[in-house]
């Protein structure tokens, strides 16, 4: 056992719950998981502390240097075919389902999320080029990424724009045509670029959002004028492209992932090639953004999960105090204290629930291309898969520090670093507030096609759970909670479009909790059907489900009532009241 994640739980989620055998044979799946767990423990976990201390540095020549152990680990990751695992054999991969790749990635994120960020971005970058680029662009840029020789980034944010992509000012001016397509010269600045520069890969492929000037030289307003460009660090002829690192962002967590401010075009303009048609950049980038959002969710879940396992181990080993009412005798392990068990249960439902949510969405990715219903459901759940693990995986990290007591906030134990790493995830790839607006606006009020599909699956699980002893009351509670969600959505639909978003984040919190209640009920029902020999595991799943329904689901009522009321307590707060 690596102690990174529970392999028993991963096997249950993939085989017993999500039926991965419909996508790949069990022998292949288990071999990939065995390989991933061992490699993560042997090469990623071993430099977890070192990568936090040896932060990226920028030398006088403009080159970023990262902890050498990161490069050594990723070389082995590439040699074992894990960069390529999710690509088709025609593309140079193993043709594994996304679900299997997601479960594999979870081990690496649990071991060292900063190192794992490089392949996560690279794979998503190559997949976007494969989907929207030309055959020549795929061969020139994506294939070396699939081989793990080149790494990739996504360059969206700018210093003045942040997450408001309509305000990007990076400019792309036509520079003719060549074998790689329409060539442009890019000038502008990109901020918060993870993996923006490093010294462990042969090249870096930047996917850059920019605007092509109008005939009068001005840039188009809004997102409709955004195009996507491939801008490599080194050009096909080996020359250095006009991309410079203007500075490094020194973060509280994910320190091994170099986070850069990049300047494009300080001299003649950075050479880039247009992907697809002009003006389609944001639509194309959404593929990578959505994949990254699920990836961030998996990482957040894995960080919370590892902190839960460390807490459980510490609670079994740490002797302190005696049961209430007992004045003498030897001290007992702190796991004997009910409040510690309560905290462990809270960690368990957060960590295991978050991972279940992300793997459920990964299962939808595998079928969404050919199943419109699964695609719609995936779209609805993606902001939840990004946000709920980021918020509640972090909560599990916070509880881990509490369980460890004074040791928890020292650098001698990993839980404080796990908390620092996970604190970035509610911001990475769209903040919680942005995900809430996406859920309420695009996914519910504008589209809404995923809602009846989710309702159907929830009611199917409710019906099945009513036939399982001990789950009947939970099934009724979930049915009632979903009715409250539906009623709140109707209240939002009757509101002015401008005010419907005022309390989007509390709605996302409530919606996410109901989704997790459904997944916990579904897991508990699946665990109840396990063969003899799995009683302890199944009992743990059922007990965790009970905890979620007794202690977490009741929080939903207050949140939904607040949203449905249309309160303007936040929107109506005068900005001047926040002055000192």
Strand content: 5-15%
Helix content: 40-55%
What gross morphology would you assign? globular
- CA-based gyration radius: 24 Å
Average of the residue pLDDT scores: 96
The secondary-structure element order is HHHEEHHHEEEEEEEEHHHHHHHHHH
State the end-to-end distance: 53 Å
What's the number of extended β-strand segments? 10
Tally of DSSP helical segments: 16
Largest sheet: 8 strands, mixed
- Judged by helices, strands and strand pairing, the structural class is alpha+beta
Which spans of ≥5 residues are poorly predicted at pLDDT below 50? Answer: none
Give an overview in words.
- Helix 5 crosses helix 8, helix 8 packs antiparallel against helix 9 and helix 12 (450-465) packs parallel to helix 14 (504-528).
- The termini are far apart.
- The protein has helices at residues 7-17, 26-44, 48-53, 68-79, 98-132, 135-146, 281-317, 338-368, 372-404, 415-423, 432-447, 450-465, 472-493, 504-528, 535-552, 555-565; strands spanning 57-58, 64-65, 150-155, 171-178, 181-194, 203-211, 226-232, 243-248, 259-264, 270-274.
- Strands 3, 4, 5, 6, 7, 8, 9 and 10 form an eight-stranded mixed β-sheet that branches. A two-stranded antiparallel ribbon has the order 1-2.
- Helix content is 54%, strand content 11%.
- The mean pLDDT is 96.
- It is built from 16 helices and ten strands.
- With 580 residues, it is α+β, with helices and mostly antiparallel strands.
- Strand 1 (57-58) and strand 2 form a beta hairpin.
- The chain is globular and about 80 Å long.
